[in-house]
Amino acid sequence: MARAGQRVLREDSVPQDRITVGLLAIAFPRQAVDEAIEAAGAREQRSRMLPAWLTVYFVLALALYMDMGASRVMRRLAGALERAAPGVAVAVPSEEALSNARTRLGPVPVRLLFERTAGRLAPPGTPGASWRGLRLVSLDGTALDCQDTDANRAHFGGPSARGAAGARPHGGLPRARLMVLAECATGALIAALPGAYATGDETLTAGLLPRLRPGMLALADCDAAGNQLWRDAAATGADLLWRIGVPCRLPAGETLADGTRLSALEAPRELRGAGAHDIAVRVIACRPGGDGQATKRSALITTLLDAEAAPARELADIYRARWKIETALRALTPGTKDAGLVLRSRTPLGAEQEIWALLCAYHAIREMIRAAAALAP
């Protein structure tokens, strides 16, 4: 609400703005926002122009308008809120006040909001949602450019290799990694985990393994699938179908009727005394390209050892569904690569907040797409 003496700015919202802001309200109702704030202990201690609940919606709106200044985003949000509740005036604070409100909120409420609302969207019978009774999910990752500040560089790090001309890749910007577990049929995110660039995809993947369940078939791209990572993933009860680079230490075993062969991921020699053992896998030689493109020579390995129950040709076709998740991840960061945009936050906590907001906005869009598809004849 506007206070006496405060400037009230209204910006007429085009229909697209009303749709996007309305989308946030549908995907993240006020009650869900309040619950996330309470759970994070982020409720404001005194009356403010920008209370915590409004700050959450502001942060989510920033994710929808990556190429727009904070004040302009707030004006659009204010305009949409005033239209939704005639007679209510929303004041637009200064850039500094908006930044301070984001700092007070922190990343935790936005993370909790994502974790409480994200999940599978495909109803039973959705094409591509399952194969032979197994729910298809994919583990995949990306990287996000951050503002080049000392704090971001110290926290996130980034690529250090230099090209032929001596320039660092991606302009030498700090980069955050992001690993997600997604539903193949809809691209809906089941779980996500951001981290520093130096953390590595395998470490972040390990952090998502507890979200795997029996009855899932998890697809992943892992050039150097390690014995421990595979063992931990298989221990969840989910079946696995991962691409690995070639050459990879996979000793030759029995060749099956479909041309695939049995092999094993060898336990590290130093761990054998601690009870580590080789893990049986089935190897499918293929070039699982995406978008019609062939990839470098590789192979698939799977926990599905029965060639009759899990034909190799079907598994190779199924693995291509993972490329849809890569497309979805590009949609997750609209314009950040092609337009040269980076996360706007100059601090690690601000960047983390932004990442969770992007994930929330992505989920809201996927939910809208699913709802629209359900209405189609």
Task: Describe this structure as you would to a colleague.
- It is built from 12 helices and 9 strands.
- It is an alpha+beta fold and 377 residues long.
- It has 2 domains: 146 residues, no CATH class; 212 residues, no CATH class.
- Strands 1, 2, 3, 4, 5, 6, 7, 8 and 9 form a 9-stranded mixed β-sheet that branches.
- Strand 3 and strand 4 form a beta hairpin.
- Helix 3 crosses helix 4, helix 3 crosses helix 12 and helix 6 runs parallel beside helix 12.
- The radius of gyration is 23 Å and the shape is elongated.
Query: Helix amount, in percent?
Result: 25-40%
Largest sheet: 9 strands, mixed
Instruction: Calculate Rg over CA atoms.
Output: 23 Å
Give the count of structural domains. 2
Poorly predicted regions are 1-15, 161-169, 290-295, 334-339
Q: Which class best fits the helix and strand makeup?
A: alpha+beta
Order of helices and strands: HHHHHHEEHEEHEHEEEEHHH
- Percentage of residues in DSSP E strands: 15-25%
Mean pLDDT: 82
Span between termini: 43 Å
**Count of extended strands:** 9
The number of helical runs is: 12
- Gross morphology is elongated
Give the structure's gist in a few sentences.
The chain is α+β, with helices and mostly antiparallel strands. The protein contains twelve helices and nine strands.
List keywords for this structure.
single chain; 377 residues; alpha+beta; nine-stranded mixed β-sheet; 38% helix; elongated; disordered N terminus
